[in-house]
């Protein structure tokens, strides 16, 4: 592996396709100032999520794992003016930082943050007559991914797009001896996704400034 080269290529791609953006740069600064983990998606991953949301004309998006709102803002910018995004975040501190950043991005009217464990928030959404979602992005705690898959599928419309970050974990998902909770969670999710008859799916392996990981992509069958 040549991590330095992969990072340089990532920065090259960003320099061509991801212009400097003071709102997104402020998001990163705010999360450093608040001592939050620097585990947001990369700029080019953000652009990819944005393009995929545009491609399917997403009007209703559900996100699991808000952190400081970096991915939320990328996805929210792909929405039409009357579009909606609901994002689920366990930590009240993260949710408070994200709320400010989302307001700064001009998306306060489009985005709702639900604070609490995603599993309970998904139960709440299931019993609340929400219209179905066009796109779901799973990026919360990795051990929860399989449960989240089970709980989000009934909330999605036929043809909807499901994306899940961090499903390769530097290849640790291949290691039969791993005891890394995130790798075990990702592996269980990948197997559940592959066996899930309601979707067609694949994983895109990713390398760059975030190291070596992968994004699962699935389409809900009609
Ligand atoms: N999507 C963000 C990064 C999310 S990091 C971005 O790319 O910008 C993962 C987030 O999931 C963290 O903020 C963490 O607090 C949150 N999280 C962890 N466990 C959770 C749970 N059980 N329910 C909801 N959110 C959770
Ligand atoms: C971790 C979580 C993420 O969502 C990510 O993109 C990278 C790392 C983590 O928990 O280590
Ligand atoms: Mg992630």
Structural topology:
Layout: H1 3-17, H2 22-33, H3 43-55, E1 60-64, H4 70-76, E2 84-89, H5 92-104, E3 111-115, H6 118-126, E4 133-138, H7 145-152, E5 156-164, H8 181-195, E6 199-208, E7 211-220
Parallel strand pairs: 1-2, 1-4, 2-3, 4-5
Antiparallel strand pairs: 5-7, 6-7
Bound molecules: S-adenosyl-L-homocysteine, 3,4-dihydroxybenzoic acid and magnesium ion (MG).
The site of S-adenosyl-L-homocysteine (SAH) has 19 residues, from α4 and β2.
Question: What features would you describe in this structure?
Answer:
- The protein is of the alpha/beta class and 222 residues long.
- 41% of the residues lie in helices and 23% in strands.
- The protein has 8 helices and 7 strands, in the order αααβαβαβαβαβαββ.
- It has helices at residues 3-17, 22-33, 43-55, 70-76, 92-104, 118-126, 145-152, 181-195, and strands spanning 60-64, 84-89, 111-115, 133-138, 156-164, 199-208, 211-220.
- The protein has a 7-stranded mixed beta sheet, sandwiched between helices.
- Helix 4 (70-76) links the parallel strand 1 and strand 2 (84-89).
- Helix 2 packs antiparallel against helix 5, helix 6 (118-126) runs parallel beside helix 7 (145-152) and helix 7 packs parallel to helix 8.
- The longest helix is centred in the N-terminal third of the chain and has 15 residues, at 3-17.
- It is globular, with a radius of gyration of 17 Å.
- The structure holds S-adenosyl-L-homocysteine, 3,4-dihydroxybenzoic acid and magnesium ion.
- 3,4-dihydroxybenzoic acid (DHB) binds next to loops.
- The site of S-adenosyl-L-homocysteine has 19 residues, from helix 4 and strand 2.
């Amino acid at each position: 592996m040549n991590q330095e080269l992969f990072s340089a290529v990532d920065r090259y791609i960003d320099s061509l396709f991801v212009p400097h953006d003071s709102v997104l740069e402020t998001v990163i600064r705010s999360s450093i100032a608040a001592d939050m983990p620097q585990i947001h998606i990369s700029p080019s991953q953000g652009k990819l999520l944005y393009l995929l949301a545009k491609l399917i004309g997403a009007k209703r998006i559900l996100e699991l794992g808000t952190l400081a709102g970096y991915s939320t803002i990328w996805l929210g910018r792909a929405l039409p003016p009357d579009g909606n995004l609901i994002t689920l975040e366990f930590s009240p501190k993260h949710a408070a930082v994200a709320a400010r950043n989302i307001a700064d991005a001009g998306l306060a009217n489009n985005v709702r943050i639900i604070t609490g464990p995603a599993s309970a928030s998904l139960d709440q959404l299931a019993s609340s007559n929400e219209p179905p979602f066009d796109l779901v992005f799973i990026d919360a705690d990795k051990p929860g991914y399989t449960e989240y898959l089970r709980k989000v599928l009934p909330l999605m419309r036929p043809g909807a797009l499901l994306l899940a970050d961090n499903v390769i974990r530097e290849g640790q998902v291949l290691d039969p001896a791993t005891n890394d909770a995130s790798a075990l969670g990702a592996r269980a999710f990948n197997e559940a996704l592959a066996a899930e008859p309601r979707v067609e799916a694949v994983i895109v392996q990713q390398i760059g400034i975030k190291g070596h990981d992968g994004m699962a992509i699935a389409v809900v069958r009609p």
